[in-house]
Inverse folding.
C-alpha cells in the first residue's frame, strides 16, 4: 500500500487513527527515494530518518506535521548533515547549526528524509547546473523536459510521490516555476514572513523560503507552522501571526482579480490559454470580478535585466565567504592566502556561477553602479510601485506561470528577447522584487504534463491569497497530483 | 621655502560591549584564541547579522560628545574585498549614511585652543586577528565582529602636537563615556594618519602618505614630526613624495615604508540587505545621550565650580581611574581641596613609590574620608595621620580602629595643653628671655618641648597658639 502520494492533512488523519505509523511512512519514503531516477537527492538520510521515526509512537492530534516525511532543498543548513548547495565548493560542508525552518519542522516532529538537488547555489532556473548533474522531470520518463529550478530536487520528490512536503527557496521563481512543471502547489510568502536564517543566501533582498505541497490547504497549514518573527533574522516580520486556514473555504464573492494584458498576450500555447480562460470563467462564477488591465510594457521588459543585475550583484558578495579558508575543500595554495582563495574558487564554482559573479561585480564597480546596479534598483522600485497600484483596486493578480507547458533541455528559446521569453517566462520575479505573497497551483494538463497558474497579492495579504487559491483549486479540481495518479 | 602640513586622522575604536556588533558571541580581549566565536563570526552560510543595540547607544554617545549631526535612520553597507582576515568577504559598515557627521572637538595646544572639524563617525565590525609565523599564519576569530566606531577628522591638523592632542581628546571621550577602554597598546584604539606637505599659503594638496601602527600618543607626535621632516627634505631637494603607506619604527624613531599605494581597491559598496533600516526615535537618542556617564569636560566644569583650579582639576582628569576614585571619595563627603591635596600628595607618592596604579590602591573611599576627617578635626596630628595611612594601605582597615590600635590620639584638651605649656615655660626660663629679645626660634623650641613631653600627642597648632599667648602675656 502506498501512502505518500496523499497530502499532509490526509496523512495526518491516518496517523492519528493509527492506520499508519511514522516509521511506515519514513520507510516508504526512503525506499522511494532510493529508487528515484530523477536525480532529486543530494543525500538520503536513511539511518537518521528511520531512527527518528521509531521514536514517534503516540500521535499528536493537534500537530499536523507529526510524523510527516519531508525533504529540504540542499541549501538549508542542517546540523551535522552534509549541505552542499549542489556546488563543489561545498561538497564536504557539514553545518554546525540548523536553519530556523529545519528547527521548526524538527520541533513539530516532521521526519527529514533527504536533502534535494538544486541549481548550483540556487542560481539558475533549469535544474541542470548542480554538481551532480541534471535533475529530471518525473512526468517525463524519457528525460527530455526540465522540472525547472532552482528547487528541482524538491519539486521532483513531491511530484514523484516520495514526500508530501518539500522546503524550497525562491529568488526569482525558483519554487513557483518548478511547481508548474511538476504540477504542484508552490508557495512563497511575503518577504520576512518566514525566517531566512540558515538558508544559504543567493540574493537576500529577493530570497524567500517557501515550499511545495499537493494542496492549497496544506500550504496554508505549512505557512502556519513556519511563519513568525525570528530573533536570528532581523528582516523577519514583527507582525502578529495569523491562522492562514481560517475562512479559507469562504469563497471569493466580491473579490477583484486582475490579469495583466501584456503578459497574457505573450503566452501563445493554446492549451495554457484555454485552461486559463476556463479558470477565469470559474472565478467569475464564484463571484469574483476578473479584469484584464493594461500594464507598462517597458517595465515588464525590464524585469529580467533588473533581476540579473540585482541578483548577481548580491550573489557575488554573499558567496565571497566561500574562499577555502574556513570550510569547504582546500584545493591547494602553499604560499599565499590569495592562492588558497583562487584555487578554491576556480575549481569550486562552475563556469555559469563565475559568469554571474563577473556580471555582479561589474555592475557594482564604483564607476558602473550608476548605470547598472543603481539603475536596476530604480527599475525594481518602479515596477513594485506600479504593481502596488494594481493592488489599490484588486485583491490579486492572476496569470499563467509559464509560456510553455514543457521546457526541453535542448534549448527551448532561441530568441531570449522575445516577449514570450522576456515577459511570459520571467514575470514571477515581480513577486520577489516586491516581497509579495505568490502561489502557483495546477490549472491544466497537457497530455499528462501538468502546468500551473499563479496568484500574487499585496505584501502581508498571504491569508487572503490562500483563500483565493483555495477557491481556484476547487474550480480546477487539480488537487493532490502526483505522477502515479496523473499517469493512471 | 616654508611648508605647511595637512594632516587628517582616522581613528578606529573598539567598543566595550557584552557581545559583538552583529553576533551574540561575547566580546572581550585576551581570551584563548577562537573561543569567542559563533557561526556568524566565521561566516558559515546562512548566518545573518543582528544589530547590537548597546553599540548603537555607544556610538550615539560619542557622536554627541563630538557635536555631530545624528542620522535618525541607521543604514548599513557592505564593503567587499577578499582578505584572509575578513571572514565574510565583506565588512558590514556605514558608507553612505554614517550615524554622525559634521562635528568637532576643541584641543588645547601650546598655541592656544584649536577646533578640529570631524567629517564623520560610523559603526562597523572588526576583522579577525592574524598571526604571521615563519611558514604559516594563524587566524583568531575572537576579534572578528568586534564593534567599532571609526572617526574621520577633516585635514585640519597641522603638526605632531595637534595630532597627539586630537587623538588624546578622542581617547578621553571614548574612555569617559565607557564606550571603549581606549588602550592604544592593545589596539582597542588605532589611528591611521594621512599627511602631506604643501607650500605655506597654498590651497593645493601635496602627495599623501599614510602612517599606520601608532600605538601610543607620543608615537603619534613623534611619527608626524619625523614624517614632516622627511617630506620637507625630499621636497627641498627637488624629489617627489611617493604615495605610500609607512609605519612607525619605535626603535629607530622613524617612519619606514610598508607598501607603495597602487590603484585604490574598488570596494563595490552596496546596502546590506540582511539588515532593514532602523529608525532611531528621539526618545532612544535622548536616552542614550542622557545616560552617558559624565565626560571629562563636564567634570572639569564641576570641579572648578567646587573650588579647584583648572590645572588642579586637569591633573585629576588625566587619569580616568583617578577621576573615578576622586568622585567616589567626594561623594563620601570629602572636601574637594583636602581630597585633592591628599590624592596628589600622599596617595600619589605612595603609588609612585610602590609602582602601583590608583586601581590597585587598597584604601576604600570611605576610609580615606574618615582619615581626612580625623586629621581635619584635630583628633590626630598630620604625622599621626600618615602613620595611620601607612597601615591602611595594607588591608584597608578602618582608620578609627587603627588610631586606637596604634594608640594615636592627638590631645586637643585645652586645659591639659595649657598645663603642659606652663610646665615647659617654667622649665625653660631662658627661652622666655630669648623670645622677648626677638628670637622667634625660642617659640619653636618651646613647642618642641611640649610635643616631646606629650609624646607627640598634643595638638601642635593648639600648642603653638597657647605658647604664643602665654609668651605675649609675660
Amino acid at each position: 500500500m502506498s501512502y505518500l502520494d496523499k497530502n499532509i492533512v490526509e496523512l495526518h488523519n491516518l496517523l492519528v487513527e493509527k492506520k499508519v505509523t511514522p516509521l511506515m511512512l519514513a520507510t516508504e519514503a526512503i525506499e522511494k527515494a532510493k529508487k528515484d531516477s530523477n536525480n532529486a537527492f543530494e543525500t538520503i538520510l536513511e539511518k537518521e530518518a528511520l531512527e527518528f521515526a521509531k521514536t514517534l509512537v503516540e500521535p499528536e492530534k493537534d500537530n499536523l506535521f507529526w510524523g510527516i516525511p519531508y525533504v529540504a532543498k540542499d541549501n538549508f543548513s542542517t546540523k551535522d548533515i552534509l549541505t552542499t548547495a549542489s556546488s563543489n565548493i561545498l561538497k564536504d560542508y557539514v553545518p554546525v547549526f540548523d536553519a530556523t525552518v529545519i528547527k521548526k519542522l524538527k520541533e513539530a516532529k516532521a521526519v527529514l528524509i533527504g536533502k534535494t538537488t538544486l541549481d548550483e547555489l540556487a542560481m539558475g532556473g533549469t535544474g541542470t547546473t548542480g554538481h551532480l548533474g541534471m535533475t529530471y522531470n518525473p512526468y517525463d520518463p524519457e528525460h527530455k523536459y526540465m522540472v525547472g529550478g532552482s528547487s528541482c530536487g524538491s519539486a521532483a520528490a513531491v511530484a514523484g510521490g516520495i514526500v508530501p512536503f518539500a522546503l524550497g527557496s525562491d529568488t526569482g521563481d525558483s519554487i513557483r516555476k518548478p511547481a508548474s512543471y511538476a504540477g504542484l502547489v508552490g508557495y512563497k510568502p511575503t518577504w520576512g514572513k518566514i525566517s531566512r536564517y540558515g538558508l544559504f543566501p543567493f540574493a537576500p533582498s529577493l530570497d524567500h523560503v517557501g515550499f511545495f505541497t499537493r494542496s492549497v490547504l496544506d500550504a496554508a497549514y505549512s505557512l502556519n507552522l513556519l511563519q513568525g518573527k525570528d530573533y536570528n533574522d532581523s528582516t523577519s516580520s514583527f507582525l502578529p501571526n495569523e491562522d492562514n486556514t481560517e475562512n479559507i473555504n469562504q469563497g471569493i464573492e466580491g473579490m477583484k482579480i486582475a490579469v495583466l494584458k501584456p503578459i497574457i498576450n505573450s503566452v501563445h500555447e493554446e492549451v495554457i490559454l484555454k485552461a486559463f480562460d476556463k479558470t477565469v470563467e470559474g472565478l467569475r462564477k464564484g463571484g469574483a470580478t476578473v479584469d484584464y488591465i493594461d500594464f507598462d510594457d517597458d517595465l515588464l521588459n525590464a524585469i529580467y535585466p533588473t533581476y540579473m543585475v540585482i541578483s548577481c550583484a548580491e550573489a557575488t558578495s554573499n558567496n565571497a565567504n566561500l574562499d577555502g579558508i574556513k570550510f569547504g575543500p582546500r584545493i591547494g595554495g602553499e604560499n599565499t592566502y590569495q592562492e588558497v582563495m583562487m584555487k578554491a574558487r576556480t575549481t569550486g564554482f562552475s563556469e555559469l556561477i563565475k559568469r554571474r559573479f563577473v556580471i555582479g561585480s561589474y555592475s557594482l564597480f564604483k564607476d558602473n553602479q550608476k548605470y547598472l546596479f543603481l539603475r536596476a534598483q530604480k527599475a525594481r522600485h518602479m515596477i513594485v510601485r506600479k504593481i502596488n497600484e494594481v493592488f489599490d483596486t484588486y485583491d490579486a493578480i492572476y496569470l499563467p506561470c509559464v509560456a510553455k507547458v514543457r521546457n526541453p533541455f535542448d534549448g527551448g528559446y532561441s530568441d531570449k528577447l522575445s516577449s514570450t521569453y522576456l515577459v511570459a517566462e520571467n514575470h514571477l520575479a515581480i513577486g520577489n522584487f516586491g516581497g509579495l505573497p505568490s502561489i502557483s497551483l495546477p490549472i491544466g494538463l497537457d497530455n499528462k504534463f501538468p502546468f500551473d497558474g499563479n496568484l500574487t497579492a499585496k505584501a502581508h495579504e498571504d491569508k487572503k491569497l490562500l483563500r483565493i487559491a483555495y477557491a481556484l483549486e476547487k474550480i480546477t479540481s487539480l488537487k493532490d497530483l502526483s505522477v502515479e495518479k496523473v499517469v493512471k | 621655502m616654508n611648508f605647511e602640513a595637512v594632516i587628517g586622522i582616522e581613528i578606529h575604536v573598539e567598543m566595550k560591549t557584552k557581545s559583538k556588533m552583529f553576533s551574540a558571541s561575547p566580546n572581550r580581549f585576551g581570551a584563548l584564541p577562537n573561543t569567542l566565536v559563533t557561526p556568524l563570526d566565521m561566516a558559515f552560510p546562512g548566518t545573518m547579522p543582528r544589530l547590537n543595540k548597546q553599540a548603537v547607544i555607544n556610538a550615539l554617545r560619542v557622536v554627541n560628545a563630538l557635536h555631530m549631526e545624528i542620522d535618525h535612520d541607521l543604514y548599513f553597507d557592505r564593503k567587499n574585498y577578499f582578505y584572509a582576515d575578513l571572514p565574510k568577504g565583506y565588512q558590514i559598515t556605514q558608507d553612505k549614511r554614517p550615524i554622525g557627521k559634521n562635528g568637532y572637538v576643541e584641543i588645547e595646544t601650546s598655541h592656544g585652543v584649536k577646533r578640529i572639524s570631524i567629517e564623520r563617525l560610523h559603526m562597523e565590525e572588526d576583522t579577525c586577528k592574524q598571526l604571521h609565523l615563519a611558514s604559516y599564519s594563524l587566524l583568531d576569530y575572537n576579534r572578528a565582529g568586534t564593534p567599532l566606531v571609526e572617526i574621520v577628522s577633516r585635514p585640519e591638523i597641522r603638526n605632531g602636537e595637534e595630532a597627539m592632542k586630537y587623538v588624546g581628546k578622542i581617547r578621553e571621550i571614548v574612555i569617559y563615556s565607557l564606550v571603549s577602554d581606549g588602550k592604544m597598546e592593545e589596539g582597542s584604539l588605532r589611528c591611521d594618519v594621512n599627511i602631506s606637505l604643501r607650500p605655506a599659503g597654498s590651497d593645493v594638496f601635496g602627495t599623501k602618505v599614510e602612517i599606520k601602527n601608532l600605538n601610543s600618543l607620543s608615537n603619534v607626535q613623534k611619527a608626524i614630526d619625523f614624517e614632516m621632516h622627511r617630506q620637507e627634505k625630499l621636497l627641498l631637494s627637488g624629489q617627489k613624495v611617493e604615495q605610500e603607506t609607512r609605519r612607525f619604527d619605535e626603535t629607530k624613531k622613524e617612519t619606514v615604508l610598508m607598501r607603495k599605494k597602487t590603484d585604490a581597491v574598488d570596494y563595490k559598496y552596496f546596502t546590506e540587505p540582511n539588515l532593514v533600516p532602523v529608525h532611531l526615535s528621539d526618545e532612544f537618542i535622548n536616552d542614550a545621550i542622557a545616560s552617558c556617564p559624565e565626560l571629562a569636560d563636564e567634570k572639569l566644569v564641576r570641579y572648578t565650580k567646587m573650588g579647584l583650579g583648572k590645572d588642579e582639576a586637569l591633573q585629576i582628569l588625566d587619569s580616568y581611574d583617578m577621576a573615578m576614585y576622586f568622585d567616589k571619595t567626594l561623594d563620601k563627603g570629602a572636601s574637594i581641596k583636602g581630597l585633592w591635596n591628599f590624592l596628589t600628595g600622599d596617595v600619589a607618592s605612595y603609588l609612585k613609590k610602590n609602582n602601583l596604579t590608583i586601581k590597585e590602591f587598597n584604601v576604600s573611599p570611605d576610609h580615606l574620608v574618615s582619615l581626612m576627617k580625623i586629621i581635619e578635626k584635630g583628633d590626630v596630628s598630620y604625622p599621626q595621620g600618615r602613620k595611620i595611612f601607612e597601615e591602611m594601605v595594607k588591608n584597608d582597615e578602618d582608620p578609627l580602629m587603627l588610631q586606637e590600635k596604634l594608640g594615636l590620639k592627638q590631645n586637643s584638651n585645652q586645659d591639659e595643653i595649657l598645663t603642659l605649656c606652663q610646665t615647659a615655660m617654667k622649665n625653660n626660663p631662658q627661652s622666655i628671655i630669648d623670645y622677648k629679645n626677638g628670637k622667634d626660634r625660642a617659640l619653636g623650641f618651646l613647642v618642641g618641648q611640649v610635643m616631646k613631653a606629650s609624646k607627640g600627642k598634643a595638638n601642635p597648632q593648639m600648642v603653638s597658639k597657647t605658647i604664643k599667648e602665654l609668651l605675649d602675656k609675660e
